[in-house]
Amino acid sequence: MMRTYWEIFLTALKLGLTSFGGPAAHLGYFREEYVHKKKWLDDRSYADLIALCQFLPGPASSQAGIAIGSIKGGKFGGFLAWLGFTAPSVMVLALFSFVINTTDIDLEGFIHALKLVAVAVVAIAVWGMAKSLADTKVKAGIAIFSCAAVALVPSAMIQLAVIALSGAVGLFLFKDHEKRAVAKNSTLTGQSGFLWLLLFFLLLGIFPLWNHLSGSVEAAMADVFYRAGSLVFGGGHVVLPILEKEVVPAGWVTSGQFYAGYGAAQAVPGPLFTFAAYLGAAASGINGVLIATAAIFLPSFLLIYGTLPYWERLRGNKAFQSVLTGVNASVTGILLAALYNPLWTSTVKSTLDFSLALILFLLLAIWKLPSWLVVLAAGAAGLYF
């Protein structure tokens, strides 16, 4: 089992060091590593997990990693998958918080090139998922309509509504499809799932009470960051304005420091929720880093550990598989919308950008070069141009 744990951690650590570009890009990197290379799950199972994480509040890519690690190695495997994926950006952002005013090196070109890598990664993921999950006229139609709806009205609520509607359409249109076998995860039981979900809701009341009675910075941080990780749909970009309203008036950081950290969080690999490490470092040093990071990600663990057992049971039901067929097609369309906005619209600004993105697509999709090598090559090109 120890060998499995090491494999989970090292695989996630590689992703944590190379996964630039935000949640949509992370899901593309995850698919390449966990589905294609490691073959820990297939495309359908992966899309099922994405659909689950889209329904839950919090960082979807981190939750997907926790779920995959849990399926491979139980609860501890889920923790190791999160640790490997999250630790690099936590350390970088915490360090950046301590030395924010000590350097004036211009890395704009380097950062922009890494975003171009993300464009190529997401394009590969969309193409691969479309071939397996939107491979009929009806499924392709669901994917395209989902993409159009989310692109026209880019909000978390619309995204949830599109997924729910696609599931209803799937139940009606795909009810005669043959039931498919799914792998079971015996490490997470339904009984334990209820307890994890109960703890999730209890902590929503315990942390504010602790904050009220204690009045310490640490208690306030636990309260603020746990609520942010529990009640925000739509990922890291959505949580940022909510955190600003909490941490800037409290005097933990100035408005300028807040947005400097926000820029840094977009430049590093890994989940954008690690922005909490930057804020925690500014507010209370190393203790702040640990408290803020643990508090904002704790809801993800509780929700995944709580829902995954029931999710797998539902996946084995024929009617629910029909629902998932529609949902999976919808997820493909939603990922396509993310490829356009924010990735394409904020990254591909010129013919040079388009050409570099196309070359990066060639290196990753056709020539199959290692992603870390492509990231380094793109960064060098960004600095040069």
UniProtKB/TrEMBL annotation:
Transmembrane intervals: 79-100, 112-130, 142-174, 194-213, 225-243, 264-283, 289-311, 323-344, 356-384
Family annotation (InterPro entries): Chr_Tranpt_l_chain, Chromate_transpt
Protein name: Chromate efflux transporter
Entry's localization field: Cell membrane
Taxonomic lineage: Bacteria, Bacillati, Bacillota, Bacilli, Bacillales
Membrane topology of this protein: Multi-pass membrane protein
Species name: Fictibacillus iocasae
Keywords: Cell membrane, Membrane, Transmembrane, Transmembrane helix
Domain of life: Bacteria
UniProt family annotation: Belongs to the chromate ion transporter (CHR) (TC 2.A.51) family.
